[in-house]
Amino acid sequence: MDPRAGTPAQPQDLIDVDAVVGAYYDRHPDPEDPAQKVVFGTSGHRGSSLDSAFNEDHIVAITQAILEYRRSQGTDGPLFIGRDTHALSLPAWESALQVLAAAGVEVRIDARDSWTPTPAVSHAILTFNGATSADGLRTSGPGLADGIVVTPSHNPRVTAASSTTRRTAGPRAPRRPAGSRTARTRSCGPASGR
């Protein structure tokens, strides 16, 4: 265990949130630089906006690729999307929502319009797809849901990640970016839709 665990953050631990968020919108990846391309790890793209490896361009392209993949798989139910409290989660979540809304995808978000624990998105997908029914989890047919989680999880504090979650609530990596098009969003919880 780190000897500083549970102690207050030191000045060298802090990041310039404005610089990190500003770089998300202002910097654009160089397609010739392999370090700035969309690269999927365990279940999603990871990188830092300060290195031009996680920017709005990346999220738009990834979300468009998710749309194309959903269509190819016949997934036409709602898409559950969550985010955590890290600096780039909200901007990336908003960028993804814009792409999804433009494509007319029914999107479900946290009832509080706030952060969402990653397992809650998986639970919402499983519940929607019938995991609690006597017939078991549906994995094919019309109306199936899937999702996206924007979270850096265990990554360094200036790093962000975008992960996709398939109909069975496990990770999925979309294939390639597609074209884009704005917004029906509904709450994941009991509160009224948005």
Structural notes for this entry:
InterPro entries: A-D-PHexomutase_a/b/a-I (IPR005844), A-D-PHexomutase_a/b/a-I/II/III (IPR016055), A-D-PHexomutase_CS (IPR016066). This is Alpha-D-phosphohexomutase alpha/beta/alpha domain-containing protein. Residues 156-187 have a biased composition (Low complexity). Residues 148-194 are annotated as: Disordered. This protein is α/β, with parallel strands linked by helices. 27% of the residues lie in helices and 16% in strands. The protein is built from four helices and seven strands, in the order αβαβαβαββββ. The chain has helices spanning 17-26, 56-73, 89-102, 118-128, and strands spanning 44-48, 79-83, 106-109, 146-150, 159-165, 171-172, 184-187. Strands 1, 2, 3, 4, 5, 6 and 7 form a seven-stranded mixed sheet that branches. The termini are far apart.
List keywords for this structure.
194 residues; seven-stranded mixed beta sheet; 27% helix; A-D-PHexomutase_a/b/a-I; magnesium; metal-binding
Number of helices: 4
Summarize the helix and strand pattern as letters. HEHEHEHEEEE
Unreliable spans: 171-194
The total strand number stands at 7
Q: Could you report the average pLDDT, rounded to the nearest whole number?
A: 79
Protein name: Alpha-D-phosphohexomutase alpha/beta/alpha domain-containing protein
Organism: Luteimicrobium album
InterPro entries: A-D-PHexomutase_a/b/a-I, A-D-PHexomutase_a/b/a-I/II/III, A-D-PHexomutase_CS
Region (Disordered): 148-194
